[in-house]
Amino acid sequence: MLDAPVTGSEPQAIEGVLTFIVGGKREAYETCLPLFSVMGKKAVYMGDSGSGANAKLANNMLTAANLLALSESLMMVQKSGGDPELFLEVVAGGGARSGMAEMKGPKILSRDFSAQFMAQLMHKDLKLANRLAESLQVPVPVLSSVKQMFQIAVNSGWGAEDMSAVAKCYEAWTDTLIGKKEK
Q1: 6-7 and 40-47: which strand pairing?
Q2: How far apart are the C-alpha atoms of 149 and 68, rounded to whole Å?
Q3: Is 160 helix (H, G, I), strand (E, B) or coil?
Q4: 7: β partners
Q5: Cα dist. 147→65, 85, 121, 136 in Å?
Q6: What is the rounded CA–CA span in Å between residue 44 and residue 33?
């Protein structure tokens, strides 16, 4: 028995480039490696049973925090008269580059909130991550804020949309859409 959640969402699953985050007995992991390589690009053995699931929750927390930082940054650029599309080019070339900027930035700018990973599923994972942190007595002020933002998105009716729809919170608060700057 292994716990083997994945990183990535539907596009990565279709492309067969998921990364498996595996917990359980090492012998079982080694036996299953050929299966992981058929379905994904990589499998990372994290340790005992449950460690794969715990690492997945930590990964999703980091993903969600990056997405919120991206959304806030895009809104700042939009409201200051800058071009959010050019801003994504800047981000791609520097220390702030991230998978969220690469994958979700274009979705936000094009207003494509079709679900690859629903906001409500991210919120569920953030609640689970919060419970894990509490059980470990780890203070998580960033996680708490991120979880609340996803709760707001879900309560606003965007739960079935892609997690990038959390950017709509900033749009609602500022009465400004994030998108291409008119030239």
Answers
A1: unpaired
A2: 8
A3: coil
A4: 19
A5: 9, 27, 11, 18
A6: 10
Residue numbers annotated as active site? 56
Q: Which two tokens stand for residue 33?
A: 């490696």
Residue 79 to residue 65: CA distance in whole angstroms: 21
For the stretch 4-35, pLDDT in tens is: 999 987 788 888 889 999 999 999 999 999 99
User: Which class for 82: exposed (0-12), middle (13-18), buried (19 or more C-beta within 10 A)?
Assistant: middle
Residue labelled with tokens 């539907």: 10
Local structure of residue 118 (DSSP, 8 states) = B
Residues 105-119 have pLDDT tens digits of: 999 999 999 999 999
- C-alpha distance across the termini of the chain, in Å: 57
Mean pLDDT value across residues 158-167: 98
pLDDT score of 183: 47
Rounded to two decimals, what is the model's pTM? 0.92
pLDDT at position 182: 52
Distances in whole angstroms, Cα of residue 134 to Cα of each of 80, 85, 99, 141, 151: 39, 39, 28, 11, 19
* Integer Cα distance of 160 and 116 in angstroms: 10
- Pair 132, 54: CB distance under 8 Å: yes
Sign of the alpha-carbon dihedral angle for 113, 107, 144, 45 = positive
